[in-house]
Amino acid sequence: MPFSMEESAEAGETYLGGKRKNMSLDKRQQMTGTGTVGKTAVAGMKDRPTKQCAARVLPTTDADSLQRFVRDPVLPGVTLYADESHSYKGMPEYHRASANHSALEYVRQMAHTNGIESFWSPLKHAYIATFHHASPQHLHRYVNEFVTRFNMHVKDTISIMANMVLRMVGKRLTCHALVHPVGIS
User: Fold this and answer.
1) Fewest C-beta in 10 Å: which of 55, 68, 88, 102?
2) 80 CB contacts (<8 Å, ≥6 apart)?
3) Is residue 185 part of a domain?
């Protein structure tokens, strides 16, 4: 992660993938279950004071995966704002506050995840409206692009361009690296 979250952080996850009704009959029959079946999980965190975001494609959203994702950039003692998911429980090193989304409670004083939701919104909109589809194999590239966009949106155009050029120095993207499977299959 590019930064350490030291005061308060929001954590959340979303799922990206096609709608079941748009899939072929063969593909629909292969899938058992509802909701997130056939979709790829993306976990995200937003540091409230700096408004910086981090996100990563995860194979699952079980407690072990999400807690490892949280513990990487978040220092002990930080207030962690998340939904009521059981996956975020069992981390005594953090002060945890949550709103009960299942009871249609989205804000309780400072307990909300609106900041990380503001990151999911443009990512999901681009997935649906611009990209139409991003394979799980390459989804991490799209997520990284949107993390960079989100973290740089307060900078002016010249600063953004200078940062982009500096990050390109000494790097080369070959066709093999682009199509070589590195993400989730």
Assistant:
1) 102
2) 8, 9, 10, 11, 70, 74, 88, 91, 94, 95, 96, 97
3) no
∠ CA 123-167-14, rounded to 5°: 20
Residue type for 81, please?
Y
For 113-167, what is each residue's pLDDT tens digit? 888 888 999 898 888 888 777 788 888 888 999 998 898 887 888 988 888 888 8
Q: Is 1 a member of any domain?
A: no
d(C-alpha 89, C-alpha 131), whole Å: 35
Residue with tokens 């990284």: 144
Asked if residue 12 belongs to a domain, the reply is yes
Number of domains composing the chain = 1
Residue type present at position 163: N
Three-state secondary structure of 147-160: HHHHHHCCCCHHHH
Range of the domain at 134: 8-179
The CATH code of the domain that includes 83 is: 3.30.420.10
Distance CA 169, CA 44 (A): 28
Helix residue ranges per DSSP H, the chain: 25-30, 63-71, 114-126, 139-152, 157-168, 175-179
**pTM metric for this prediction:** 0.76
* Pairing relationship of beta strands 8-16 and 79-82 according to DSSP bridges: parallel
The letter for the amino acid at 138 is: H
